[in-house]
Amino acid sequence: MIINSNDKSHLVLLPKKISKDKFLLQAKVRKGSYFYKRLESIYVSLTSSTTNLEEEYKLYYTEYESFEEFLYHKYPHLDEKSLDLINNSLCTKQYNFVRGYMYELSDYQLHMLIDYSDEFIGKINNLLKAELYEN
Fold it and tell me: pTM for this structure?
């Protein structure tokens, strides 16, 4: 689930068992089609050059008493609802919480779709549900 995105970076709850092939299979698009290529590009931009924030916390930010406190101070723009969603999702052990640079790795069209279409974000978020990748 995409939690936050801006021009510099994005934060996403990424299922641990996701792969590009599984992501595209769940999207139910015909291989080689235009939309298949667009979704492939989206997957790559969401998952490439990412930093696992739990690992970053453990390695570099031990001055914070908890991961929750780290998120609260490091990402003050996240509201309480988002922080609860992140913590609850991580407790299931089915997700990694990562920071990446989606806009730097994608084209302008993706930027426009994300910025102006809540429906599009909803569809991508539906493809990022861990239960889809359990088998």
Answer: 0.88
